[in-house]
Design a protein that fits this description.
heterodimer, A: alpha/beta, three-stranded antiparallel β-sheet, 35% helix, B: mainly alpha, MetI-like fold, 10 helices
């Protein structure tokens, strides 16, 4: 399944500020694309548009299969906050999004893969922040998505936890290899996750640079070749990356 | 410990009330205007064994239940609709304000005049009195629905029925409980007026008879039986239901 984004312009309201302008993205099947940019670059908005939660003011989103026929992809969505239903157990939060009759079995299986089977019956309020995010991750993969949208899914986690979740995400991804659109403001994380990184500028959000990352997986933030790549990119495109780097240094 | 204390305090308040009543009846020293608690209990027993108390209670209870169900169903539907749609809210709002402020007596009389002195008119009159307050409460609940959780349902294309029961309803539940609780007490009160004005059975009708004979003892006996039923419903039905639904909040 491939995705083609063509947005001339998007505003929150017809007379509001322009949030996105001239966004054209074409993906290959099974690609992991990260969108990086400063806050206010409309990355989350773009993800909401791709996920069908909002309609672009001017533009189109099309999904096509290998025969170029339009399709409606099954979608998994990991939001910036876990967004679990607090009145449902971890297991029920996952089976909520499933349609088959053995949804409980699938939910258990996914919980086991993220190491939370013991907590299946707990309400989300009884889980730590990192555990809630793992449930959200499990929920996204439970639907066996063809399209996986991730909006800063590991933000505000401590480094080891984020690293664990990234590796769990990669393991889950390998089964079906869905198309992933991954939004982050963290340059290092983008390089660590992506096949392709698209850099956005802010106000309005527009893609300004695109690079391929051909490094072997699994990767970690501290890998030498990732540090190397980062240094090279910073040297080549100092103006584009300044905003993003500044973000990071002040954290 | 805490629950135990509450129970004792509750019992204490009832004992205090009965003691004050007893003291009052001694002070007044007139069996016809304020009979002592024991005398009223005796009268209650007589009414109970002679049969017309149980039958009156059942007749009234039936009217209460039908009117309650009707009011909750219609009020919830309309209130939810108003909370979710600004157009509907603006359209129905002035009618709602009118409904909230029409005296119960006016709707009762009009229903009897328009529909006839029959059971339908009685139940409809009660329901009409209650529907607006249910609408107001449920509208607040519908407005407070968490958009982020709804987006989860939309992103995962959860079927409408399941979205309703697993995403909307748990959020509406506190508001529905509040509407049900205040609804039950209001309906009890109005049903009696309806019976007094236009029915030839039920507690309201009986109270009207006792009024004509200045039979204060019987009026108090009926009131006690009534209070007992309301407390039973509150403690055996409403509160356990509420505890069950709020289980996830305790975590």
């Amino acid at each position: 399944m491939k995705l083609s984004v063509a947005i001339e312009e998007h505003r929150y309201s017809p007379r509001g500020d322009v949030v996105l302008r001239d966004v054209a993205i074409d993906t290959k099947a099974g690609e992991i694309v990260t969108l990086v940019g400063p806050s206010g670059a409309g990355k989350s908005t773009l993800l909401n548009i791709i996920g069908g939660l909002i309609k672009p003011l001017q533009g189109n989103i099309t999904f096509t299969d290998i025969n170029d026929k339009p399709v409606q992809p099954g979608t998994g969505y990991v939001f910036q906050s876990p967004r679990l239903m607090p009145w449902l157990s971890a297991r029920d939060n996952i089976s909520l999004v499933l349609d088959n009759n053995d949804s409980n079995r699938i939910a258990n299986e996914l919980l086991e893969r993220v190491g939370l089977l013991d907590s299946a019956d707990k309400f989300s309020g009884q889980l730590s922040g990192g555990m809630q995010r793992r449930v959200a991750l499990a929920r996204a993969f439970a639907v066996r998505p063809q399209l996986l949208l991730m909006d800063e899914p590991f933000v505000s986690l401590d480094q080891p936890t984020a690293e664990l979740l990234r590796s769990q995400m990669f393991e889950l991804w390998q089964a079906d290899k869905p198309l992933v659109i991954f939004v982050t403001h963290d340059f290092n994380e983008a390089l660590c996750v992506a096949d392709r990184v698209i850099f956005f500028s802010a106000n309005p959000g527009t893609p300004v640079l695109e690079i391929s990352v051909d490094l072997p997986r699994p990767r970690s933030l501290d890998d030498d070749n990732i540090r190397q790549l980062r240094r090279t990119l910073l040297a080549e495109h100092p103006d584009i990356l300044r905003g993003i780097e500044h973000n990071r240094d002040t954290l | 410990m805490q629950a135990n204390r509450r129970r004792w305090l509750r019992l204490f308040s009832i004992v205090l009330f009965v003691a004050a009543w007893q003291a009052g009846s001694i002070l007044v020293n007139d069996v016809d205007s304020l009979p002592a608690p024991l005398l009223v209990l005796q009268s209650l027993w007589e009414h109970f064994t002679e049969g017309e108390l149980v039958e009156s209670l059942l007749v009234t209870l039936r009217r209460v239940l039908i009117a309650f169900t009707l009011a909750m169903a219609i009020g919830t539907l309309l209130g939810f609709w108003m909370g979710r749609s600004n157009t509907v809210d603006a359209t129905l709002d002035s009618i709602l304000i009118l409904g909230l402020n029409i005296p119960a007596l006016v709707t009762i009389i009009l229903c009897y005049l328009w529909i006839g002195l029959n059971e339908t008119a009685a139940v409809v009159a009660v329901a009409i009195n209650k529907i607006p307050t249910v609408m107001v409460t449920v509208r607040e609940g519908a407005k407070a629905i968490d958009r982020e959780l709804l987006d989860v349902a939309r992103a995962y294309r959860i079927p409408r029925a399941r979205t309703l029961t697993k995403v909307y309803l748990p959020q509406l539940y506190p508001y529905l409980m509040a509407a049900a609780r205040s609804g039950l007490s209001l309906i009890w009160k109005i049903v009696l007026v309806v019976e007094l004005l236009g029915r030839s059975n039920g507690v309201g009708f009986q109270l009207g008879m006792f009024f004509q004979f200045f039979d204060i003892k019987s009026i108090l006996a009926y009131t006690i039986s009534f209070a007992a039923i309301i407390m039973a419903i509150e403690f055996l039905l409403v509160q356990p239901l509420e505890r069950r639904a709020n289980r996830w909040r305790e975590s």
